[in-house]
Fold these 3 entries.
Entry 1:
Amino acid sequence: MDWTPEDDQLVVVRGPKPGGAGGAYRIFGETLRGLKTTFARAVEGHHTIAYPEEKVPVYPRWRGRHRLHRFEDTGLEKCVGCSLCAAACPADCIRVVAAENTPEHRVSAGERYASVYEINLSRCIFCGYCEVACPFDAITMGNDYELSDYHRSDLIFTKEMLLAEPLERSPIRAEGE
Amino acid sequence: MPRPERKLITFSIDGREVEAPANMMLVDAAKFGDVEIPVFCYEPKLGAPVGACRMCLVDIEGIPKLQTGCSTPVKDGMVVHTQTRRVKDAQQSVVEFLLINHPLDCPVCDKGGECPLQDVSFGWGGGMTRFVEPKRHFKKPLELSPLIAIDRERCILCYRCVRFSQELSEDYQLVLHERSAATFVGTFDGHPYVAPFSGNILELCPVGALTSMPYRFRARPWDIENAGSVCTLCPAQCNVAFTVRDDRVLRVLARENEEVDDGWLCDKGRFAYQSIHAEERVVAPMVREDGVLREVTWERALEAAKAALGGAQGRIAGLAGGETTNEEGFLLQRLVRDVHGSPHVDSGAGLDRSGLLALGDPGLQATVADLEFAHTVLVLGTEPVDDAPILDLRLRKGVRRNRVKLAVATSRPSSLDPNATLAVRYAPGAEAAFVTALSAAFYGGAVDEPAQAAGADAGAVHELATLLRTSGGDQPGDVVVLYGQRVLAEGEAVTAPLLKLAGALGLSGRPGAGLLGVPTATNGRGLREAGVLPDAGPGLTAVPSAGHGATGIAEATAAGELSVLYLLHTDPLRDEPQRAVWERALEAATHVIAHAGFLTETIREHATVVFPAESYAEKEGTLVHPDGRLQRLRPAIGRPAGVRAAWQVLDELARSAGAEHGVHTVHSATQQLFAAVAFYAGLSVDAIGAKGVRWWEDDARAAAWPQESGLRAAISDLVAKTPLSRTPDYEEAPTPSGLGAADGATNGALRLGTYQSIWAAAEVEASPALKFLHPHQRVELSPADAARLGIEHGEHVTVGSAGATVEAVAHLRNESPAGSAFLQSGIPEDAANVLQGPLVEIRKATPK
Ligand code: SF4
Ligand code: SF4
Ligand code: SF4
Ligand code: SF4
Ligand code: FES
């Protein structure tokens, strides 16, 4: 369709002029409205949390550090090294190198397993797409959010680290908390 | 058959008027209207469609039932619908049916991410299934061969692999067993599917039923990069795409170029990439100290080479192997000839300048595609499946689809014999006499005498001449002569009658017909044109003083006239025909400087300075295809830390000798080469591009071919010098005095013929996946000779001549002509070049 410039209309909305009753309201009225919230909370007492001695419990669906899982009965890894998580990851921080299971060396249930599985947590944006992509629920987002470290390279989590239980578990918020 | 003419018609698809070539299949014609029709079994490369999968159903007005778009040719005025409810329902049903027995184990399937079944199910499927019964099961995973894994549960029975085996490579190994739902793909008796082209079915299979063993679980499509280049493992120079992950080549796929490879690859090209990352590869420069090769720094290695070259002005010889690029060859000949004043450079062209000029005349050239559309193709003294494998598929295609008449004239029985209209045998080494006889048949000369000298049947020679003469009705049609370089061993004695033959067939200046020579070296043609010749410089210009050719170099070095050998990607003990003299030469040489990727025998035992060579996936430069097509090699991966490019080393050596040529990148070398070769004028790497350029197709460039010996002049000149009835030398050859008569059964001598198997290559040896294919020496005999000698099939024998012997396993072939024995060359041990020929004796090996 042809574009005729005259058809486009610009509507300009301007605020009230400075000074007068409107100006006074903006100076005092709005400020008082904000202070109302402040004073209302003041009577509730302080809310400082003494982290790291005290921790805020996270919601069950909180997306923290990933975890890889094993089958509870056989102990085999659920991950088959399909790289779908790597394909889904928008930050491109997962690296999977697959290999073949042999009868003597069986790591996962399928034909293949992940011989290398690394997540670069310094790049991860915790979007959880990897969890959604995984066809075997092998990778899930855990609750652990304490991830700071002194070296970037220490933030590349290997398969062993991801399979292991986190050292300190983050508290999870109970129902209705 | 000449190429079919294309006529455009108009048809309507989904309401759009579209122009497409008449009789094109609907699925292809639809693409002209940007409509995609899903397919599984349709693959134009496989020839006529079979309509096995029903995925491509479309609605054509006037035809009550849905039609398969892959096997319905488009006609003028056709009205086609692909978006109607009826078509959608049909497509969804077909997908549902295909998935009934499909395991859908995509996460563990190697095809996942590049799987047409995934794409089609996603794009045209219904998204659900009503099938709840158990699926069929097969044992999996299974090896179809050491290179191919088969998962029969995933097979959708599209027939592609079977058709390839039956109709393309014609190895007739793959078949479909059983019927209906129990059908499965396999070989007749379950033996491994081993064939020179077996790897192509990996790319053909539209699902993950056939997957590559070496690539198994290595990467997903999103982990990898594709890098287009050219395979340098044989003269066919197929276009390839390297699959690269983490700077390693993990797979080689075909990069279709109709003019070169038609989209196929042989298994050597497909799997020998493993040699790039082999443990035994040389990745640091080495210098020989106290008789041992030791790794040293680049500075020390270059110093050693400079010292060796500097002290031997005029006594240097340069030899370039087949994998040398044009640029490297150009720089080598400049280093040896111009900088160090020594005319001895060669690349094993085996022919002098006038012969090369005559045979290379632009008017006489045929292209690879011409093999497919000629009236008749004469395969002369070459076994395509060994010498340039992909041409074998092209010849079979021509015969099968375009009714090309194939004539095979070889000494060793050819695998193309069953396809040939006529197969003629001559004695090994008697090419000159045979070609003389053949051309005499055209000119009314004496045929019987040279035919007899060639050990060929005179009647068959006449028959062959008649076939060539009458292929286009009553006059000669388009004839392509595909000859192997080995045919030219006797120089003018072969080129003269060959050119006469070309003249008689009117090949000169005729499009679609001509000569196509298969060099023994991958880039043989390029090296010739770049001037790696003893008697011609870049562009085949004459040089003031001619040097020695390869064998001459060896003799002169053995005699102490030359002292430094510069070996660029070549191992003469393996590649050259005369091993004995090369052994003496390498012993006598004071310095042997070599660029090598592997410590093969020459390098290990004789090299004094070794520069690590780039692999073909790391190299940049240009090559020339046997039909004159310039192609580009592009680096797919980085070089290992200790490796430098050969052009860099060659330029460094030239610079240290005081010659500043201004070669700063490989492209400056390319530009200098194009400037130096008159008939490459105006070319650039950009013009060559991804698919290459045949230089002689441009009239200006063709005219720049050195004129002084145009075809006419060459023929009259050569013919005058070589009377047609000349009897070749081999009849005067002495009887061998190899094996003593005292111990064991000795016998009448046989003529020695040699051939180089497709698997005889250092790259194959270094590739773990291809280990099982390493050729071992075997001697092919006719059953008659074997019976006379009391030798049985599979027995260990000793083949001897002039004091030298090789161990081999007797291999009896019914087709093998009596009186000849065929040995392999190019293998590391017991190669045929140990023997001098032309006659050999065979006897049972003494049990160890
Ligand atoms: S959470 Fe998102 S960014 Fe992090 S690894 Fe998973 S997919 Fe990648
Ligand atoms: S975690 Fe899941 S998606 Fe990622 S490789 Fe393993 S199985 Fe595949
Ligand atoms: S063949 Fe394709 S659809 Fe079938 S399992 Fe493999 S990737 Fe999935
Ligand atoms: S194995 Fe692959 S190519 Fe062969 S019939 Fe089955 S699906 Fe087709
Ligand atoms: S693609 Fe047409 S029937 Fe298979």
Note: The pocket of FE2/S2 (inorganic) cluster (ligand 5) is lined by residues B 39-42, 51-56, 68, 70 (CB under 6 Å).
Entry 2:
Amino acid sequence: MATVYVSYTPKNDEKQPEGLIQATIGKETVALLPVEIGNEKLNCIQAAQKVGTQIPHYCWHPALTVVASCRMCLVEVGERKPDGAVVMQPRVVPGCQTPVKDGTVIVTTTAKVHGAQQQTLEGILLNHPLDCPVCDKAGECMLQDYTYGYGRATSRMIEQKNTPANKPNLGPNVSLFTDRCIMCSRCVRFTREVAGTAELQIINRGNHAEINVFPGEALDNKLASNVVDLCPVGALCSNDFLYKHRVWNLKTVDSVCPDCSTGCSIHLDGNKNIVYRLRPRDNPKAQGHFMCDEGRLGYGYVNSKDRILKPTRLGKAILWKDATKDIRETFELAAKKDGSTVAMMVSPWMTSEEALLLAKWARTLSRDVRLALGPVPTVGKDDHYPKDRRGNDLNSAPKFTIRAEKCPNKKGVSEVLKQFQLRLHTFEDLLSWVDAGQLQAVYLAAGYPPRGQGWITTEQADKFKKVQTVVVHDLATSPVSDIATWVLPAAAFAEKEGTFVNHAGLAQAVRWGVTPSGDCRTDGQVFLDLLQRRGLAHVGTLRKELAKEVRYFAPLAEGELGEYGIHLETPQGA
Amino acid sequence: MADFEPVLLRRILKNASPSLEAYRGDGGYKALEKALNTMTPQQVTQAVIDSKLRGRGGAGFPTGVKWTFLPKGHPGPIYLCINADESEPCTFNNRILMDQDPHQVIEGIILSSYAIGATTAYYYVRYEYGDATRATQKAIDECYAAGLLGKNIAGKQGFNLDIFVHRGAGAYICGEETGLIESLEGKRAWPRIKPPFPAVEGAFRKPTIVNNVETMACITHIVERGADWFRSIGVPPDPNNPRDNGSTGPKLFCISGHVNKPGVVELPMGLTVRDLLEKHGGGIWEGKKAKGAIPGGVSMGVIPDTEFDMRLDFNGPAKYGCLGLGTAAVTYFDQDTSIVDVLYNICRFFEHESCGQCTPCREGTGWMHKIVDRIRKGQGRYDDLKILEEVGDQIGITPGTTICGLADGAGWPVKLAVRKFRSEFESYIKNGKKTHSLTLVGAH
Ligand SMILES: Cc1cc2nc3c(=O)[nH]c(=O)nc-3n(C[C@H](O)[C@H](O)[C@H](O)COP(=O)(O)O)c2cc1C
Ligand code: SF4
Ligand code: SF4
Ligand code: SF4
Ligand code: FES
């Protein structure tokens, strides 16, 4: 067990914590708050975080090597001896580079530390353009925040600033505003240590040092845009987001990326029913700190005008209430004759709760209604990072994996279906039933993002001509929506709530950041209506129902998943 | 001290040939023979510790003590890096050794490798030192041919050593020991954070000792003549201060600037700045008076002529606020020199050479340079002096704000110049005085 002592700064309306120890450091009296850190290996920044004390930092990042070069995290450290005496080191030290041990004293409140912080910020600002009004990062910029919190009120610099040329399109997704760079080297370390492709380097020396790509190369790898989040300032900007929106107008919800079964935790930023960007959200249980560019930039269809926006019957717009009533009656009729002529497909884009509601509707119709999992798009092999310089796989333990399974909830949907039906049927099974003329009514809960070749080929769709009643519940038209009797608009991941289960059995909460476009309703709401259950689809209630009715989901009985989600399986290696 | 006989420059002063044959004719490689036949590696290390030799590269760290920081019983490889990046302005003592007596250094390298158990030595030579590189490579080739390098050196079974000459990357920062190691590994010379220190994890993540060229040359003579002999030269350790290592052994001093006789002289440490000028530098040129001097390479600071009683040993300069003895390269300037110009030139150097990773150094060096430039153009403000002193005080490993000592060396001359020559800066500011020539002084 180890105790670390962190200088305590009173916060607004917080009552003074117990156990404060007074110590004299130089000419100042400092209150030290003891904190138990157990056997954890921490640096000063992490140890101070334990008591809620922020040590400002730029170059340090928990997923990258320590370089201790920005000198934003300077603190005073010392040791509290067993007799209670506090002995301080004579010089300031970088908190990121300084490990703590039993008795370490971390002081952030002295004039010396404030002076060092001011000096570093003044240095950074010497050649910084301060073009915040036109800078994408303004509002979430660590230079703005730290200058406000720790900097000098006025600038003493009257010389000309350096004006290096900007580098638009450092890669297809990222631009560099060279003059805003504070040389923390996070971006360079990321491409070397996490992506491994090492496209970035630093050229020139001293205050003329610049980030650049190697000659003839581009910052072009599947993780490239992470440098935008890593960049503490507005130097590296996402081409996708650039000049689209001021960040303080964005509304952020915590959600899950739907584009592969890694299930990266994300922040979803939207405003006025438009999704503006996805950003990775730190989650040690899921992917760590990052996300891939495919997922990050894959949300475009949510905002698309080409989506299915209204329920239709044989191409004519109809009201929802008529649609759900007619569909229900048609399916009831078919099921009454012979339950086994009715089938429902649940795509791996549906939430687990939606899968539950649809499966329950199926069971209210007849115990013979067939359930099948929709097509599971798979592209290539799991893609592990870091790679080597040439993009080949390394044999080391991966720091990030983009999965071949390009959907968010195959696991969750499959587990629900398995609860209701002994065998998990696939899309191929469904096609073979259709082919064999065994089906009269089919409900295709698709909700596939329109991309690539689409989820169903014309050839496959044509088979459904044999089926009397086809309902397609989807985001965009497809060969099968041309054949369907009813076409219902689905909601995109950004518009609904529920649970996605990733490849490793981690249940995470998807949350809506924008409301469904046009006349869309959330899919869960549609299924509730089909079930003739009253009220709105409330995710907490539905999740409890899921936990109760599907054994696999039993750990979710509380209805809440917390920030990082809940493991439904014992994680590998645990 | 009048009877001091040059040791390091002995052959150079006689204009002796740098060839192996000539070196041997003058008694060369006797020390190696002695060590291999009569001493264990531990005994060589002990002799170096006993000699109180302090590194000649600038920091003055006791060489033998540094060697003991290597992990004990390490299976190897252990590397020795010879720091011949010599880029401190006004410093050229390594160069003369490499150009004109390369075997003296190589013998020291072989001896040191024997002592520390290194089987590979990297000789990192400043890129601009073409002649030195060629002379060194030629001498190494001669050694291989004569069985003094390679396998079973000089017949000693199991003692192997290869020396690779590596040409530097043309930057001052390549001389900082971890910058050197990074550069040697093929990377940008961005100094590493310590710990780990190179002795524990250095080149290619293996234990590594970095030593200066002149340090190596001293080793040759310590082994040959003994630690007692070495310790009898110069300033002995202060008996009242157990942590003082003294300033023992012969030392090369570079004399440059406005003097009648610039050059390298070999002397025991402890003489004054004035004596060095008058007895060895031939006094200030053109019959003028001295205005001041840079006592040990520009990183160490500047002093006015009123402080010429400063003793040139490892402890002397600090008594006058200087950073240290540095490379013992003393530059004098005459009464007509503008201190603002001197400082401008120094600031220009450090802005150019800061590697750019630590914010305080990267930005501080540039800022100081711009301010001094403005002052010399007649647009200074009184506030500028405060800022110069403040920045000068706040950058470096001494206050704890940077990774390497370049920043200390950049700040030191600035704050000392402002403090020791304040009235001249003030007169620039008050009168809007401009430097008579705004053209650049020197070239780099
Ligand atoms: C910016 C900077 C530049 C340096 N340049 C040199 C150099 O050119 N040659 C050198 O021997 N030491 C140089 N040093 C000192 C080295 O870091 C190191 O202390 C030295 O090589 C150790 O050798 P020694 O113990 O034999 O002196 C430099 C240090 C700094 C901070
Ligand atoms: S990086 Fe930050 S401080 Fe700089 S211009 Fe952008 S918002 Fe302003
Ligand atoms: S571009 Fe951004 S992340 Fe990269 S070094 Fe500059 S400030 Fe740091
Ligand atoms: S002090 Fe200066 S030269 Fe040394 S590592 Fe830092 S920025 Fe580079
Ligand atoms: S965060 Fe510690 S030096 Fe940059």
Note: The mean pLDDT of chain A is 95.
Entry 3:
Amino acid sequence: MHTARIRNFSIIAHIDHGKSTLADRLLEYTHTVPDRRMEEQVLDSMDLERERGITIKSHAIRIDYNAKDGKSYILNLIDTPGHVDFTYEVSRSLAACEGVLLLVDASQGIEAQTISNLYLALEANLTIIPVLTKIDLPASNTSLVGEELCELLDVLPDELILTSAKEGIGTEEILESIISRIPPPVADDNDKLRALIFDSMYNTYRGVIIYTRVFEGSVKAGDIIKFFTSGNRYEVDEVGYLRLDFIPAKDLQAGEVGYIIANIKRIEDAKVGDTITQAEDPATKPLPGYRDFKPMVYSGLYPTDNDDFEDLRDALSKLKLNDASLFFEPETSVALGFGFRCGFLGMLHLDIIKERLSREYGMNLIATVPNVEYRVDLKTGEEITIDNPSMLPDPVRIDAIEEPFVEAEIITDNEFIGNVMQLIMQRRGEYKTTEYIDPAKVMIYFTAPLSEIIFDFFDKLKSITKGYASLDYKFTGYKPSDLVKLDILINDDPVDALSSIIHRDKSYLWGQRLCSKLRELIPRQLFEVKIQAAIGARVVSKSKVHALRKNVTAKCYGGDITRKRKLLEQQKEGKKKMKQVGNVSLPQEAFFAILEIEKV
Amino acid sequence: MKEYPEKKELGLYIHIPFCERKCRYCSFYSIPYDERLVLEYCDSIVEEIRLHKNTIKKYKLISLYIGGGTPSVIPLNILTEFIVRIKKNINILNKSEFTIEVNPNTLTERKIKTYRELGVNRISVGVQSFNDTELKFLGRIHTASQAVDCLKRLIKSGIDNVSIDLIYGIPEQKLENWANTIREAISYNVKHISVYNLSYDKGTKLFEDLTKNKFKKVNFIKEEFMFFFMLAFFKEKGFLHYEISSLAKSEKYRSKHNLNYWQDGEYLGFGASAHSYLIDNKNCHQRWGNISNVDKYIDRIKNNESPKCFAETLNNDELLREYLMLRLRLIEGFSLREFDRIFGAEIKRKLISKLDFFIDNCLLQESGGMLSIPNNRLFVSNEIIALLLSKL
Ligand SMILES: Nc1nc2c(ncn2[C@@H]2O[C@H](COP(=O)(O)OP(=O)(O)O)[C@@H](O)[C@H]2O)c(=O)[nH]1
Ligand code: SF4
Ligand SMILES: [Mg+2]
């Protein structure tokens, strides 16, 4: 019966539309966070999240709210990331909720992730409360965007809530509508325990902390629980609610959101999406699991100094503790030595992992050109998958190469349709249809190879639409393409880590551009550096970096050694960031050169 | 970190930051000559030396170097009194190297004589070039013929150990002019030559003019050629190339004062912008530098405040960096044995394990237990040192 006073909800929105800021207002209004601990985007706890102003991981927090009807309610808020790379995290959080606030920035209107998140919410059968935010902005167009939103959701204008998280307008209305519109969880304490793991984190002192939503039954300290997929059993140490800190509680009952600590040592043992039940009196069936996720982008991570290989393994394992979507396994490169092939959700994810490795673990790293995963049909009838271009077999053995394709949609102003169409074509895309959201705004559907979309497509898109475009895509399957491997030779030796798989029609041009790009990126050094691009045995382009002729301190007397040492330290640090390949030092940028070249 | 063998030797440096006029390329701390200020300044230096008297006593002084600026602008009576007062505080041995830096145009016969009487036994002349166009470009106050006169005077005076400075890589400097300058340089029986590549330091007039495109830099290929041509020439004439930019007529004419810098020796510097390096009895390696402002320097000394503007205690990494940076400037390099003794077996093993790459690629050479940069790679020595450090 108590579940009548519980609401589990999430806020979904396109990136930067104001989720975290709105969450701040809700927490402030309900005094959930003590004033002295209130800061902007209080739920974004990672340094990187704060710095970049984006949410990377989901966060959950419990809010006590005294409603106008005189009763007090428990609201469990789950803040979700908005970037397309992290769609997966959104779907995990939604499974723990009964409703969502669909937030739209009144100055930006509906954008691609608004649509894709809405899609996820509908799929999970959640109640949707449309909210227009940032109405304080002079550029906001409340009536037009409001109309669009109402049309999209088939709701009446009075169901739309207008807010400004900046000025605190509409906060109460949101809280009230959460209570009146989102249904309480349907749950029965007397049923057998079924609790969903929707997130987890690793804590050095306490082990794995599970974020869970109890659907049926209840769980308390001392219970022996069991995980459906692994079958592993654990004794529960502590259960409780999520505030900014962990607040222990007597038990967690059906409908509630909270945490469980059960002396679990490895995060792999508490798989997100798994169902928890009582070991002695188990439920018969698990809750529906999550969509499976697969890495979309692969890149090799190598320490610039081979001696740091084990350190890198440690660092990756630690990151993985809190990031189930990170994949890695050891690999060897002729050029780079020992490293790891890593799989990421997208380029932002890759970027974040790289940055955390360097900041939090002090690693000097080389990341190789990111690539997607290919399927290769061999003449023998065998099929293999390849997540590293240098592993592509000899062309004579290959029957066909298949690459991943996506369905994508772009929302933009109709004046840019021409530009966008041209870009889609250049990226081997196949146009499907266009829908008008309003007279000025269109949604363009197309399919394209993932490799053409995932790297720099969005940057390009923004530049040809003056920033007025959003993009969303999802993986649909593999299709054959006419692909070849482009190799780069440095001083006549192929550098496996610089190989890429590209479409045959583009190979010649890209080879040339890649060569000249590499010439810009590779600094002059002690030896001449010869650069060649080749497809098979055919060299398609050549260039070279002349040897450095001078780097010497003209005069070194007078006792001012400190300044000269510091100059040398800078030079040394610069070198540390480079990877020695043969007698050539290659900077990190060289490995990403292919992303930098003009693609048409 | 293992202990250094107790080094009882110490070098002293005194900075005289006064010049008749600022040269266009100069990034040293120097200001126009001002007699009232000079008097006060000399007083302050004597005071600063007095403060370190007890420390200095624990060492054997191997060198005293009065540099600048242009120490020779100081009138003889003031200088004489200055040196006499210094000598009251410290014990300069006869065989210590005692150098003073002079500008060719201010060095009279009387000055030379007085310097000798004061104990100076080495004179370093800022010749820079024997070409008037180049001297003018550099903004030097003297002419080529003044330099020649000065050197002739020095020969006559009987001062044996004369050193000159030369600069190459001056915009529009022709190869034949450089050849003339180095040929001229050895016609005056100088015992030591320091050869510098013109550098464009931020804050100098030269740098500013470069950014305004008033002239074009000499390209690296030509500079490299000038450097190696100079080396070949002087070596042919019997000079010993012992440090990247220094040559001496024989071992005994190597600059003791500068060798001390390069060989991790201890030194104390006095005066504005002077630097010091001491290893204290806890084996902590301390560096510090004085404030680069004559007025403030004088004020601080007067008020019994420290004239330091920075001080640091070197950690092992920094020591290693300095060691390689300085030792590899020496043509003989450093001994692996000594390296082992100073930095310990573990880091030595690491060095050895990375050595193949450097030796195979002719970036370093090993002979008789000494590791050094091959001659033909000296012009990229910083690149090599930085690369080596990045692997340690
Ligand atoms: N003017 C105005 N700015 C807002 C409002 N809500 C959020 N913002 C700003 O919009 C930006 C993105 O907000 P954030 O909460 O990080 O968005 P998220 O990516 O959806 O979490 C930040 O600079 C906020 O300060 C609002 O109601 N009015
Ligand atoms: S004489 Fe020497 S210290 Fe004085 S300005 Fe010229 S270069 Fe600088
Ligand atoms: Mg956010």
Note: The first strand of chain A starts at residue 6 and ends at 13.
